[in-house]
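Late entry, written up from scratch paper. The run itself happened at the end of the previous shift, but nothing got recorded in the book at the time, so transcribing now.
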Amino acid sequence: MRKFACPSCGADVVFRSAQSVYAVCAYCQSMVVRTDVDVTSLGVMAALPEDMSPLQLGTGGVLDGLSFTIIGRLKIGWADGLWNEWHMLMDDGRRGWIGEAQGSFSVSFEEPEPLPRPVSEAIERCLPVLKGKEVDAAKVRPGFTVELGGSEFRAVDIKLATCLGSEGELPFAAPKGRRTVAIDCVGTDGQFATLEHDGSTANAYRGRYLEWEAWRFSNLRPLEGW
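Output as recorded:
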């Protein structure tokens, strides 16, 4: 854990994960980027849209016998709705993501780099969706398959996703308006994969869906009816 003074207001900005390079100051909402020895401000993050999520920064839980804590969040929008991506830090130092959409919860972890060449090529073929090239984007279709971690996944949806806001601690800069092409893929036995590209970097995440009780959440956000 490392602590820096916010360049804008002087409040403490804490980085719990050594791999986190970006955080939103909880006091003035400045977007802060960490270098090796200091932090700089990228401006002010707009307020996150309200939602009814029971999760919050500081929510804990247990996954596969290991405790974790939620340390950041992305609010993502696309043509047909919104979802949350909660950044979590495991007790063993690993970082993962809790996807929350329409009352369902999933966990995923980033695939190590470099990605297999067929996966990278599949993502790059979907870049017209991100770049707004309508003629080429119209030719981009799901249905193709990729292999990750020894399992095969089939692409079922390709969409343009936009960051609506972020909070807490994140492994990359995520200002409002950051866009990615997101490719949703399904495997077997509840597995899924998400492939994405922000115009400069391709990433892949592999995970699974879990029932609410399996998370053993603690320190939830107080909500009427929960």
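The first strand starts at residue 2 and ends at 5.
(Scratch paper discarded after transcription.)
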